[in-house]
Amino acid sequence: MNVRGIVIGCALSVSCRKSSVPPANADSTTPTQAVATGSSDSRCPATGLWAECSVLYRLERAGLAPHVDSTATPAEKSLTGRPMVIKIGLTSSLEVRVYPDSMARIADAKKLDRTQLVLPGAEQTINRERTLIENGNLIGLLTSLNSHQRERVSDALLAGPPQASTP
What we know:
- It contains four helices and six strands; from the N terminus they run ααβββαβββα.
- It is α+β, with helices and mostly antiparallel strands.
- The chain has a domain of 107 residues.
- The chain starts with a helix and ends in a 9-residue tail after the last helix.
């Protein structure tokens, strides 16, 4: 056998062999810890209450591609608190109000004219009512005629806020 054949054979055997270096996340000395929100963003902690960032995260995870519209004017004037208007798709919008707790949300929700709203599971009428989504410390008012989109948004938000991890 010539030297050239030996060198080529060694090079091929080395290049085809599995690497002995373990993957970066396989370090057994550092325990893996699941993040409660599913997000690695520490600016949005899971507290068991909704926050604007957790609403956006949940909608993103549902595949809805939400975009905050900072120039939009909220349609519901009777509610207090800082509104956030989120565009979903080309024609739909979600007006979100996040409160300090569920009691503040319940008190503020009494101001709503519920005859102009439908619940997530209900069919819209010819009046094209907005969909009312209430969960914990959140009120969402969805303007969408797409029943599938109404279902996806309401499912994402009715699943509940990110829960705080228990020790």
